[in-house]
Design brief:
The complex is a heterotrimer of chains A (about 250), B (about 60) and C (about 220). Chain A is an all-alpha fold. Chain A has one domain (about 20-45, about 55-250). Chain A is about 80% helix and about 0% strand. The mean pLDDT of chain A is about 85. Chain B has one domain (about 5-60). Helix content of chain B is about 85%, strand content about 0%. The chains are: A mainly alpha (about 250), B mainly alpha (about 60), C mainly alpha (about 220). The interface between A and C is medium-sized, with 28 and 28 residues. Chain B: It is found in: Cell inner membrane.
Chain lengths: ~250, ~60, ~220
């Protein structure tokens, strides 16, 4: 097992392996997202209370799940990079951050839009939306910190430390915001407590979540490969790889 | 099918602007990240190839 | 332990020599508090409602401002590198530095807050809790903030970035700190809030020094 981990560490080996894995994840993502969207938008029954505006759940919840999972996987790859000095792990962490921020924004935007018909206002200090907003600031902090250093190695290590500190704080922030929200809870309907969903509403949600996750894996593989090309540009194997392609085109 | 006709589907029972704006922004962002990733890879490969070609011609003329 | 005490004493004397710098966060705190009655309204009833939150946010921002100078002077004159080379564990030494920062900013802010509370017509009975929760809370704020300060000490314009990194992590402390004062005003139990503030402090006391040490190593040979 350890040989596999070590091989994963070498950018060259990762570059070739991810090329094989990537198409599978793209195919899975497209299939799941199309099926989930059609099912959620057209075939799932409307919610008895909210009518069709509840269909926003099929993008809001997967984006929110992904936003949190990406931060955790970013922190884990940061830890792997700091402890075992596996460069590919840091490349993956660097590449995940923008997608995580985008997913958090999607969750926030769709939550706010969903709030308009349900609460009548664009922004409600709902516990989950507030935690999502704080998560967005954590993402921006990690991205800004990584960009602030001139030397890449200290940028990677600084960003990894911040990601790890952040991931420890996420549950603390979540619980304190939930506690704060229940203390100041307005009487209206909240996103936090929803009646149990019947299966024909719940199943497309699972498909959409799986679709979002395979999209995340596929995109991370692809962008990590670009990051490998960017960082290993002067290595021999990259030049041979490119030379091979240059001869082909001539 | 939860809707009788396609136009009813578009109307979303009066919630059309909310549902379609939320889904639209999500689709837009997903496509944008994919497009950015592909453009980034294309630019990188182009740069590497240009460098390789320049080194080849330099080595060619040096012999 | 002697080394930790030595850094403690050294930093205390260093900072007390520049007494002006020690007063800056306190003056900032008072200034920010006086802005609100001007901006919102001098009416005591309204001020009393927002007083706990205002006092806590202003104290938090004052503590945040003073963080930048925590490592900056030692970084500039190179003594931070000596600290890294010291045989003693860096986490213990950075804990000493954070303790000095708390003694010279957190504690004074906490002691000064009741005075400003009077200006904001803070209801009676919550002054002691205000000072206690601030004293407890600013300790965790210094610890968490020191991680951000250590990460950004090597950067030229680290100030704004420091607040972007650290403010999200301050939110739990703010929630329970301001919550404690509000609970004191309403008269119901304050023990829960102070207990959680204590727990947050214990957690950051245990974890923050290692993160500070790691961040200092990153910034120094960055």
């Amino acid at each position: 097992m350890w040989a596999f981990i070590h091989k994963l560490g070498s950018p060259k080996w990762f570059y070739t392996i991810s090329a094989k894995l990537q198409p599978w994840f793209w195919a899975a993502a497209v299939l799941l997202l199309v099926v989930g969207s059609l099912w959620g938008l057209a075939f799932a029954p409307a919610d008895y209370q909210q009518g069709n505006s509840f269909r926003i759940i099929y993008v809001h919840v997967p984006a929110a799940f992904l936003a949190q999972s990406i931060f955790i996987s970013m922190a884990v790859s940061g830890l792997v990079f700091m402890v075992w000095k596996i460069k590919v792990a840091d490349m993956a962490a660097a590449v995940m951050a923008p997608l995580g921020a985008a997913m958090t924004f999607v969750a926030l935007f769709s939550g706010a839009v969903w709030g308009v018909p349900t609460w009548g206002t664009w922004w409600m200090w709902d516990a989950r939306l507030t935690s999502m907003l704080i998560l967005l600031f954590l993402y921006l902090g990690v991205i800004a910190l990584r960009g602030a250093f001139t030397s890449r190695d200290s940028a990677s290590r600084a960003a990894s430390v911040l990601a790890m500190v952040g991931v420890i704080n996420i549950p603390i922030i979540k619980y304190s915001v939930d506690w704060w929200y229940t203390l100041h809870q307005p009487a209206s309907f909240t996103l936090t407590s929803r009646p149990a969903m019947p299966t024909e509403m719940w199943l497309p949600l699972v498909i959409m979540v799986l679709g979002f996750y395979s999209f995340f894996i596929a995109l991370t593989l692809m962008r990590t490969r670009s990051e490998i090309l960017r960082r290993e540009a002067n290595k021999r194997w990259v030049q041979d790889l490119v030379k091979g392609q240059v001869e082909e085109t001539r | 099918m939860a809707f009788a006709s396609f136009s009813e589907f578009l109307a979303m029972g009066g919630h059309a602007p909310y549902v379609w704006s939320a889904w639209g922004v999500t689709a837009l962002l997903l496509l944008a990240t994919v497009w950015h990733a592909r453009a980034e890879q294309r630019l990188l490969l182009k740069g590497l190839k240009r460098r390789a070609r320049r080194e080849n011609s330099a080595r060619g003329s040096a012999q | 332990m002697i080394a930790v005490k030595a850094t403690l004493v050294r930093d205390l004397t260093l900072l007390l020599r520049r007494r002006g710098e020690v007063l800056n966060p306190l003056v900032f705190f008072a200034l920010v508090i006086t802005l609100f009655p001007i901006a919102i309204s001098p009416d005591p009833e309204l001020l009393a409602v927002i007083a706990p939150g205002l006092l806590w946010v202003a104290a938090l921002l004052a503590a945040l401002l003073s963080l930048d100078s925590l490592f900056r002077s030692d970084y500039d004159d190179g003594s931070l590198e000596q600290l890294l080379l010291a045989p003693q564990p860096l986490a213990a030494l950075s804990l000493a530095k954070v303790a000095v920062h708390w003694l010279l900013t957190g504690l004074p802010l906490a002691l000064m807050a009741p005075v400003l509370g009077i200006m904001l017509a803070l209801p009676a009975g919550s002054y002691a809790i205000l000072a206690l929760s601030l004293a407890l809370g600013t300790a965790s704020l210094s610890l968490i903030g020191a991680i951000g300060a250590a990460l950004t000490v090597g950067l030229a314009r680290g100030g704004v970035l420091l607040s972007l990194l650290v403010l999200p992590l301050y939110i739990p402390v703010l929630i329970f700190g301001a919550g404690a004062v509000q609970a004191a005003i309403l008269g119901d139990g304050v023990a829960a809030h102070l207990a959680i503030l204590g727990a947050l402090l214990a957690a950051s006391l245990m974890l923050a020094p290692w993160a500070i040490a790691a961040s200092l190593r990153i910034s120094i040979n960055g």
